[in-house]
Fold each of these.
Amino acid sequence: MRVAVPARWARLLARRRRLISAVLLGLAVAGTLVSVRSPSGVPVLVASRDLPGGRLAASDLATIRLPPSALPDGYLAAGSPAAGKVLTAPARRGEVLTDARLLGGGLLAGSSPGLVATPVRVEDADAAGLVTSGDVIDVLAAYETHAETAAERVRVLTKAQSEEGGLLVLATTTGQATSLARAQAGARLSFAIHPR
């Protein structure tokens, strides 16, 4: 079915066809550039690789864009100061980071009142590699004549490993911290990991 175009409009279109073509082409190019330059979605921070937990470096973070409907509560927007904070548990590459997965400004932010951060060195660096931030462990002390539990059900805040062993920072009560200091002075320390 053909649409009848008034003769006056047909003459006007015929005279201005180059100008109209140029305007339409310009609009198409502008639309393409806008869609390429302004990606849709909200920029959020994600893990740039599989992360074991512990203190985050800038290289551990990447930015992606997600539609608002796919954003979890408490997501970290791109530009959030996450580097230097402690990831409480392992994260997979591409996983959106949230405020619930990070300890706040200090190691004990979000912990129960009355807890202290207690560093404990275990001799077996391979064993220290088995735990991640957020794990709950019992610290065991092996003396020459006997073994005992130096601290029960303490949460791992962060860790560091070296050839000399592993340094675990634990959330403990002051009584547990005293018991651990006593055990470190005269025993070899190891641990047992509670199931999550």
Amino acid sequence: MKILLVDDNAARAEAVQTALAQAGFPRPLLIAGTEDLPARVAEIGADVIIIDVDSPSRDVLESMREITRERPRPVVMFVDQSDEAATKEAIEAGVSAYIIAGLDPQRVKPILDVAIARFRTYMGLREELERTRASLKERKSIEKAKGILMRERGLNEDAAFKALRKLAMDKGKRIGEIADQVIAVSEILGRDS
């Protein structure tokens, strides 16, 4: 696991690096400052990001949004001061753990553990949602294709489904792919309502 620490306070960064190393984590790579953060994170290829700032600026939050959009990963942000709007923006930008009251090197390991676990849970839910959406889309396509076959070939619903399933098996494709092809042909022929 490659950890990136973004902190412009060298003494504090050293304390965090030492605390993480003592806790069994690999020693984090250090970036001093947040300028051009998305490019620097991409170059390093960090798996986990820890950011320590006095107060999150709009630029830092926008950088986090860009970083997590391109490649989601656990992000822990320590801030000395914040308000409700900044907290909300940070979470929406993909920050897994947003800790107010500054960075204490002894708290970093348990916070990082929680952030990683929370991130994994979030990604699992996100993947499940995507699978559910894909399944729903496929079911809608199958229903539409069955309707086309029922109308065009005079089949009942069960026979239309069996025809789709047989063609899918014969072609070695998913039934949803065959349904999409039936719909596309119907649209080309101008027969889809």
Amino acid sequence: MFFTYLRRELSGRRKQTAIIASGMALAIALVIIVNSVAAGVKSAQSKVLESVYGVGTDISVSQTPTAPGEGEGGPGRLEFGSGDGETTDGSTALSASRLTSGPGSATMSSDALQTVLGIENVKAAAATLALTNMTFSGEIPDRSQAQSAPGTELTAPTGGADGAGGSAFDVNSFSVLGLDPAGAAVGPLSAVELTDGRGLDAADAGQANAVLDAAYATTSELAVGDTIDIGGTTFTIVGLVSATSGDAATAANVYIPLDMAQSISGQTDMISNIYVQAESATDIAQVQADIETALPDTTVSTQEDLASSVSGSLATASSLLSNLGLWLSVAVLAAAFLIAILFTISGVTRRTREFGTLKAIGWSNKRIVGQVAGESVVQGLIGGVIGAAVGIAGVIVINVIAPTLSGGASSSTGRMAGPAMQAVAEVAAPGGFGGPPGMQTQALTEVTLNAPVSIDIILIAIALAIAGGLIAGALGGWRAARLSPAEALRSVN
């Protein structure tokens, strides 16, 4: 009886059913598309962060920066003695290389790594030391000829870059990341793949071997087997790496063993970052809280926190989805519910005599409410199924179009200190993150947006449509149940 009456009423009120189902379908389709695109943007953000922090890195730990003057670290100076340089043809060539973490940069004791490894549910952890290598080279003229006896005409200096007493200086910089060569399971090195030569392994500890970012090596015309000067020490290039994703950049220009980085930079037993992998996603919050308790002077960030550092159109898309997409979905869903309620109540009003007759022959209020609610639930279900199909089709179209977003994660290497350092900051660090101390640098990469279709989201969307129909039916049925048989029979359809 229930289903027979249900089928007759739905087929007899096709226009109402179509309007309610269409409203629900539009709302459900929008919910599915917005959630899928939001998941795609989140995945793209993770891809950008993986290039910097490493695949599988759940938590990043860094020393909280101190205010200028409170921490250690001096200005970026390159000092030359009176006998330094090589003098030929009336000019002196000077060259110096310095590996530094930058003035005002924040480092912490390497003991912090053992503290993190001792925390419950920490699966893996690795420490790094982020540094910048600055190379200064140029020629200065021989000015001794200008020191003539009193009363004689001064002679202009000779030599230099132009042979007439002029000077020219080249300033070059590149980012260097010191890391444990045996701990590549987590951290920046886990986000790269070998393109030539070999990677760093446990045997490289204490050895002057380096792995270069492939793009930086190409720009600098370096290859496996060549050498590179880092802080005055000659390193042999043993391998080249690139990001595991073709649309991302690696975290540094040069990778060297952590102990060598500490020794050359004078940062003995110091590290700048710890990258942590939790046993499972459900343990991340607990691990983060325990690290904050064990290391109160550090900044502990999850990938959700680090997503705020992603810039470019990827950040714009994320902000748009957060601020507009969610509220738009809620607004459309609320509008669909309201349409369903209004049309259901309107339908009940037009069926007053019908419900009066049913009550007169013995239908209970509960049965009338159930009948009206059942009709609305079926209408909501039809809208939910249609909306799910439209939403999936919309997601497929987005994936076929495959829009690209630019994204990058900022990396600060310190604070600026004086005009000399500002001059250095004008020199770009090609091929990745890093740069002169105090320079905020980032590599913007193109990330293809891939919106995944989640079965859970589809089921939730259909459930929302059914819930909307149930609410509309409950309100309409309640109105119908309030009618007394005599009053209902006196009404005219």
